[in-house]
């Protein structure tokens, strides 16, 4: 069956969401009241702040900091459903939701720039590469958007994966079909279940799905190059680093895949075992690729230290990070941030030598599980902005120095 491509994209600019009036010192445990943050202004309003006025100094916070609550800079609202994923795109931060909508926020003033989205399923993942945005959906499809300021639709839908061309080339050959479940077959270029995660690196798009497969696509023409039966259960997370792609799964494993041989096909390079019968929900990798961290459904964060040959990987940390499942993680410099179903964010400081983790700060404020995290370097004053998306439908912003 061929799928049609609809190039029409809704492009609606909404009013600026209300923000917290001003940040407060980190030893304050008060949050923005519901009366200030739960309603949007009927008119577009302006908001300005000076980063020099933010008087945070995390070096003064003791390591034993469970009694502290870090103050949020802003609450960004406007999503139809719970916030499912985040991504950076130049001067923008993109947030997507279970309601199929994607909101584009400007940095650093946090204004809502535009809103777009299309598809037959909620947005599960999004990544950016150059002037393109790739979104993965519950309907097992990947949509490609082009960022252009020269057209009325700044984020314009240009294709859907698998492409129509890929279908036409393969659908007549019975050898291109694979068994997905009893009496059901699909082309090997199709995911048979929800796509849960995406990664982009070196001109390739990687997609992981609840159907247990990892697929590789070429950015230049969107052709599907490979399909790998990667895990024994749903794939929950992907990250690509230095020519290696890492996949985390509900089967309790993190696997590393790299291109080998004359045909440059992806082969299994190594396996990192988590706790028995515990899903690994997220994975992050250090810039040099020597450290891999996985977040589990038992609330633990585990770390492995190794080399590019994957012949000497060893566990270097195993910490009880949260009371409930770790759903997401992100790295920014020496810090690792973990978000949990217990509605909290934990900020960890990484050991420069062996990759061990030390609890640095506990952040609370969301009213629902933390589904996604994204860190963005500050352009003024150094440090970074931590963005957190939650099932409470809000995107919250935390300044970090």
UniProtKB/TrEMBL annotation:
The entry's keywords: WD repeat
WD repeats: 188-227, 363-401
Pfam families documented for this protein: WD40
InterPro entries, alphabetized: JINGUBANG-like (IPR045182), WD40/YVTN_repeat-like_dom_sf (IPR015943), WD40_repeat_dom_sf (IPR036322), WD40_rpt (IPR001680)
PANTHER family according to UniProt: F-BOX AND WD40 DOMAIN PROTEIN, OS01G0946100 PROTEIN
Name this polypeptide is given: Myosin heavy chain kinase B
Lineage, uppermost ranks: Eukaryota, Viridiplantae, Streptophyta, Embryophyta, Tracheophyta
């Amino acid at each position: 069956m061929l799928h049609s491509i609809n190039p029409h994209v809704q492009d609606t600019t909404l009013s600026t969401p209300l923000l917290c009036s001003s940040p407060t010192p980190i030893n304050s445990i008060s949050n923005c009241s519901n009366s200030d943050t739960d309603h949007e202004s009927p008119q577009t309003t302006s908001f300005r702040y000076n980063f020099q006025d933010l008087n945070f100094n995390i070096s003064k916070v003791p390591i034993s900091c469970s009694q502290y609550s870090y103050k949020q800079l802003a609450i960004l609202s406007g999503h139809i459903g719970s916030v499912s994923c985040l991504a950076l795109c130049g001067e923008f931060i993109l947030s997507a939701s279970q309601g199929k909508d994607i909101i584009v926020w400007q940095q650093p003033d946090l204004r809502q720039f535009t809103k777009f989205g299309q598809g037959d399923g909620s947005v599960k993942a999004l990544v950016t590469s150059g002037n393109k945005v790739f979104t993965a959906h519950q309907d097992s499809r990947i949509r490609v958007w082009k960022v252009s300021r020269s057209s009325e639709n700044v984020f314009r839908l240009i294709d859907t994966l698998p492409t129509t061309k890929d279908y036409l080339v393969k659908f007549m050959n019975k050898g291109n079909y694979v068994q997905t479940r009893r009496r059901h077959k699909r082309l090997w270029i199709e995911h048979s279940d929800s796509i849960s995660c995406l990664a982009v690196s070196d001109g390739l798009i990687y997609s992981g799905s609840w159907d247990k497969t990892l697929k590789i696509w070429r950015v230049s023409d969107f052709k599907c190059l490979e399909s790998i039966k990667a895990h024994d259960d749903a794939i929950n997370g992907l990250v690509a680093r230095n020519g290696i792609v890492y996949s985390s799964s509900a089967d309790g494993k993190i696997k590393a895949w790299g291109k080998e041989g004359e045909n440059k096909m992806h082969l299994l390079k190594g396996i990192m075992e988590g706790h028995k019968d515990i899903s690994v929900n997220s994975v992050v990798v250090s810039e040099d690729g020597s450290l891999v961290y996985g977040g589990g459904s038992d609330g633990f964060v585990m770390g492995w230290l190794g080399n590019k040959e994957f012949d000497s990987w060893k566990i270097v940390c195993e910490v009880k990070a949260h009371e409930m499942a770790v759903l997401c993680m992100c790295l920014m410099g020496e810090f690792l941030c973990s978000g949990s179903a217990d509605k909290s964010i934990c900020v960890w400081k990484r050991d420069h030598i062996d990759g061990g983790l030390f609890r640095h700060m506990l952040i609370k404020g969301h009213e629902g599980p933390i589904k996604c995290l994204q860190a963005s370097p500050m352009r003024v004053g150094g440090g970074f902005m931590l963005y957190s998306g939650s099932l409470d439908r809000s995107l919250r912003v935390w300044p970090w120095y």
